[in-house]
Amino acid sequence: VIMDAILSIEHLHKQYSGFELNDLCLQLNPGEVMGFIGENGAGKSTLIRIVMGLSKPTDGTVELMGQRGSAGLRNARSNIGYVPDVSASYPLLSAADNLKARCLEWGLDQRQIPRILDMIGLADAGNKRARSFSLGMRKRLDLGIALLGQPRMLVLDEPTNGLDPLGTIEIRELIKRLNR
Prior knowledge:
Layout: E1 7-16, E2 19-28, H1 44-51, E3 59-64, H2 69-77, E4 80-83, H3 95-106, H4 113-119, H5 135-147, E5 153-156, H6 165-179
Parallel strand pairs: 4-5
Antiparallel strand pairs: 1-2, 1-3
């Protein structure tokens, strides 16, 4: 059975002030994990910003979950959990309260919070303030925020940046576990 691509990019171009992302084509199918590797300034974050609707391509098409066009892409993006390269957590709130705040902001069911805290390995730290977290714990909390609402797709920008080797392995294993 051939499944529809969850992400399809055709002949994508992005050009601005000396930078060019040129003729990128890719397809991501449900259940696949894809990573982008490249030098600083190669266009990895630019591509993520385009996929997430934070930047527009100069040319080419982006299709998400079978949707194209502004309204279709906006609808599809509501099914994407996004972890930006900078933490999206509120430092003065606990892990549980960070998730609760996002549920309230986004109109989501708060009953999922204990399950997500357990899933990301922060069940025992749920009442600690995020500002006291190690970098690895903050990365897991950001991932937990992205998992709210059971998204069909996760987009992670630099999910292991700044982590020690053990923290990197933990985050990669968590991503693999979530995919299964």
